[in-house]
Amino acid sequence: MANAVPTDLLTPDAGIAPRVSFVSLGCPKALVDSERIVTRLRAEGYELSRQHEGADLVIVNTCGFLDSAKAESLAAIGDALKENGKVIVTGCMGAEPEQIRDVHPGVLAITGPQQYESVLEAVHSAVPPRHDPFLDLVPPQGVKLTPRHYAYLKISEGCNNRCTFCIIPKLRGDLVSRPAADVLREAERLVAAGVKELLVISQDTSAYGVDVKYAESQWKDRTVRARFLDLSRELGSLGAWVRLHYVYPYPHVDEVIGLMADGVVLPYLDIPFQHASPSVLKRMKRPAAQEKTLARIKAWREACPDLTLRSTFIVGFPGETEAEFEELIAFLDEAELDRVGCFKYEPVTGAPANDLGAAVPDEVKQERWDRFMQTQQRISARRLKRKVGTRQQVIIDSVGPTVAIGRSKADAPEIDGVVHVASRRPLRVGEIATVKIERADAYDLHGTAVGF
Ligand code: SF4
After folding, report:
1. pTM recorded for the entire structure
2. Could you tell me the maximum CA-CA distance found in the chain, to the nearest angstrom?
3. pLDDT confidence of 440, banded at 50, 70, 90?
4. Residue to mutate (ligand 1; options 27, 114, 162, 163; most atoms within 8 A of CB)
């Protein structure tokens, strides 16, 4: 997915400032990398350009996760070369520079993921920065590519797991956790700048701190351990919604459910299960797959009845049999997850999974995907319907002439459904309103604002 640079980040042409056009592709983690690079560039006096044409340089932050994402990245580089000519490539695909050079030998430089310094060095040598301390101001919270009222907060880089369908550890390396105080200071700055919702991301959020042995760091008047539970509790004290993404069901996740029940963090867990058949999970080498998932889900819901569970799954994994797929469908019926995404397995070059079993034919993948989606749609619709008649807190993302669009605590931006809100007084983007839910369809809710 490409993220355009919002127009409110574009400063008027000062005539002399070097201008950089930026393309950000890929997942929220890549978006956070883009924000860091853009923040540094703005701090050094570079300006952002809305178009490649006329800019001094283009930076393309690529995604290399799936072959289709690589193709999209290569196309974006091609467009930038055609429209501008001076192109620096960074991001996941930068870990395999020869793949880029083979197609686009004319790019100026290629750097890998999180190599912020190398990107900046490449920019400096292509277009030297302008030095003007009075114009080089950057908002203290950094430049954000997401709307002002929510922000992604990356707590670690890399991953210690070795899921067989994934090459991220190869691209990004092993887990490196940020000190808790560092994360909290960034979160504090974001909240002070008006952010109302913090989206905690990493490759494996519940493994946070394992690599640094849960080291303590000093924040305000106390020490905070780099532990998933401790960090979640402190983030929850900042007064913003805190939403936890990419959590694996390790046993200690149970403790965080208590924080959700107490309203400290949002009652929302994004747990990418990927499959439910024990044999497929074993071939996938998924973390924490041996835990008794259904019993855990039941216990979580008992402890926190408002809990929303979101997950993603892969169908058509190499060697997936009809019986294994049926196990997945039975799990869906039993688990009754609220929000679910499903991908058809795509062989990623270099992923061990490609050799683990016979490839599932495309038409079988498609047929399983259809059955999966039909099953889940029924479940999601049923769960959404239970909300009709309730009152929900809704954060407003956009406003139209008659109806505003927002999200309840159960909806993460971009991946979940929305709430369509009618209101007798105009709502503002970023405001949190109480909404009486009147109707539900397969994915979304509809209601009227009753409290502001
Ligand atoms: S947990 Fe698995 S899928 Fe996620 S980044 Fe790590 S290796 Fe890849």
Report:
1. 0.79
2. 66
3. very high
4. 163
